[in-house]
Design brief:
alpha/beta, Aspartate Aminotransferase, domain 1, Aspartate Aminotransferase, domain 2, seven-stranded mixed β-sheet, four-stranded mixed β-sheet, 13 helices, 17% strand, globular, binds pyridoxal-5'-phosphate
């Protein structure tokens, strides 16, 4: 064992890690394009964009240069009573890409805080109207982060059992399909008619990531948003994972006819360089906090809010996103995934195979049920790592969410390894 790994085991506590049985971690020393390199010089294809954050490949020279320029001119700036060019420019450019009703950008540090800010904006809105609406609607299998608000609106499962009775009450509804949408709408309509306490509806649009890349249709989400908005329920799209081209469009919300009132962004926002969160909102949410009454202020902020270095990375990543080459790559990955889905549609080792945009998911048949603790996860990851590919299955769900710089040849290599893996089951 190398001395770094030894010291890692001695001093570091890793996230989401089964401490007693976890294998020693892989020591990464370098990133370049779609690849990591470990301490032995082994090249590893990054099939999951390093926790779904990387968009354009590792150590992209253009983003690295822009980040370097920024740290040499203004590395951090207090963001209350002060501002800086990168934050303002980024806000303006994001508003240009977001659905037409979005008009203000609130910065924070990561996906969980972007969600937390969204939830608090909704509660503050109703508070400032003098109404005691405090309940949220959310999807049963949702994941919205690890802070208390995020856990509360997320699925109740092993991630948060230990905190269960401290989480606030949420109305959990199933993911809609063509057969259940009417029933779900009826249930909601009953709530709206009988109670006047529902503040907001939060959802991951089209793809529930951590739940296992569960997918559902845009037209059904549109119906739910329309029903909620008709009943004065504020809609929050958590696009922390789906943003920046992941689903094939710039934002998953671009598939919708009804605009969410609030949108949460992080992960791909900086191209995977720096932690940064954004919560954008429609003008009426902001206006509710503009008042002579000081108690109606939105009292929320973080010490690294709108960090200039993070904003510079996000601006550079946006430059690349707006480039035609990136659009072409996103289309290429989407087409390749779809082709592979058709090829494996009837595979006996699979319960399901699905894709949307650059996301591909294979639900593998195992004796255990489909869920996060399914033991298949470790053995699948180990099999792929041996073949030089990094994946991190969610239980028995094997998925790909690669950086956009991946080539068709590299994708086909990954598909081949996937088929080889399924064949030996
Ligand atoms: C990852 C994720 C979060 C949490 O983001 P962090 O930056 O890990 O705190 C929230 N919502 C969704 C949909 C996510 O995928």
């Amino acid at each position: 064992m190398s001395s770094i790994i030894e010291k890692d085991q001695q001093f570091v506590w890793h996230p989401f890690t089964h401490l007693k049985y976890a294998e020693a971690p892989v020591h990464l020393v370098k990133g370049e394009g779609a690849y990591f390199y470990d301490a032995d010089g082994k090249k590893l294809l990054d099939g999951i964009s390093s926790w779904w954050v990387n968009l354009h490949g590792h150590c992209h020279p253009y983003i690295s240069k822009k980040v370097s320029d920024q740290v040499h001119s203004l590395e951090h700036a207090i963001f209350s009573s002060f501002t800086h060019t990168a934050a303002v420019t980024l806000a303006e450019r994001l508003i240009g890409h977001l659905p037409g009703n979005q008009s203000k950008v609130f910065y924070s540090d990561n996906g969980s805080t972007a969600v937390e800010v969204g939830l608090k904006m909704v509660l503050q809105y109703w508070h400032n109207q003098g109404q005691s609406k405090k309940k949220f609607i959310a999807f049963e299998h949702a994941y919205h982060g690890d802070t208390f608000g995020g856990m509360s609106v997320g699925a109740r499962n092993v991630f948060n059992n230990a905190f269960d009775n401290l989480l606030f009450d949420v109305i959990h509804i199933p993911l809609p399909d063509a057969n259940t949408i009417e029933q779900i709408k009826e249930t909601l309509q009953m709530w709206f008619t009988n109670h006047n306490d529902i503040a907001g509806f939060i959802f991951e649009p089209l793809v529930l990531g951590a739940a296992g890349m569960l997918m559902y249709q845009a037209d059904l989400l549109d119906e739910l948003i329309a029903l909620c908005q008709k009943n004065q329920v504020i809609c929050i799209a958590d696009e922390v994972m789906t943003g920046f081209g992941r689903t094939g469009k710039f934002f998953a919300s671009n598939y919708l006819d009804h605009h969410p009132d609030i949108i949460c962004l992080s992960k791909g926002l900086t191209g995977g360089y720096m932690p940064l969160g954004v919560t954008s909102c429609a003008q009426f949410i902001y206006d509710a906090c503009v008042s002579d009454d000081k108690t109606k202020t939105f009292f929320h902020g973080h010490s690294y809010t709108a960090n200039p270095t993070a904003c510079a990375a996000a601006l550079a990543s946006l430059d690349l996103m707006e480039n035609e080459d990136t659009e072409r790559q996103i289309r290429l990955i989407s087409d390749c995934h779809q082709h592979f889905v058709q090829k494996l549609a009837e595979h006996p080792a699979l319960k399901d195979i699905r894709s949307l945009g650059t996301i591909l998911a294979l639900e593998i048949n195992t004796q255990e049920h489909t869920h996060y603790l399914n033991h298949a996860s470790e053995s699948i990851a180990a099999y792929f790592l041996k073949q030089g590919i990094i994946v991190r299955p969610l239980g028995n769900i094997l998925y790909l969410i690669p950086p956009y710089c991946i080539t068709e040849k590299e994708l086909n290599e990954v598909y081949d390894v996937m088929e080889g893996f399924l064949a030996q089951l």
